Amino acid sequence: MFLGQTLVRLSCAVALGLAATAAAADSSTLAKIKRTGTVTLGYREASIPFSYLDANQKPIGFSLDLCSQIVDKIKTDLKLDKLDVKLQPVDSSNRIPLIQNGTIDLECGATSSSPARLKQVSFTVAIFVSSARWLTKVSSGIHDVKGLNGKTVIVTQGSNATGFAFDIKNKGGTFNITQGKDHGESMLTLQSGRAAAFMEDDILLASLRARTPDPAAYAFLPETYALVPYGLMMQRDDTELKTLADGVLKGMMASGAFTKLYAKWFESPIPPHNENLNFPMSDALKERVAHPSDSVDF
Fold it and tell me: What residue spans define the domains of the chain?
């Protein structure tokens, strides 16, 4: 009797274990996509040129083009005759929760990776590397950060660049720091000559520069601060999807397709106003293209 009850319990335990394993497998993103025939991509509405809306309010951008290649690979690998693509707008406050709760399968925006975020989500190999930099007017004759000494510079209140600027000053810089209420005010301060330089994330500065009447009148100083990788974001520990997505990106990087796509969005006129960011690939990103990595260390 005792042996019989033990066998029954063991059988139940094995059955429950197999059911739990099956449920876990079925809960993966790729399994869900295969079951539903739908993949949901998160996009940003104003993260030029990564992910934003064109003149017809259609989501476009560098990150969305990369995600399109990943979607094609998902469809092929899952042997799906049809794969519906849903697009879900996200912002800086909800993008991580929407990944975590499965509302979106892959975020195709401009999200930076960090040790803190890697405790919540996963990222593909880096698709971009940003850095805080100084933007100046060519007519100022300033060629490096030492040329800012004795002058007034501007940062945007609340930006991470504020901390970098004060750190440089505390280490011997003799410039004065003023703060704009938003990026528009900071850029206007530089344009008007009331500040000799504006420090902010380099790609954001490139976007602001492209919208000025004469983008060629502005130049970056050579110094870079705090290299930060961007990646396409997905659920944490989703090994299957990460392996697939990384494989697509690594293949594009090896073939030259990634560099060609980069030139399309960062070095050519882009919709909706045919602005050219004139933002060549940095040495840090070239290194990541040559040796793809999701590491946050440089």
Answer: 29-129+229-290, 131-227
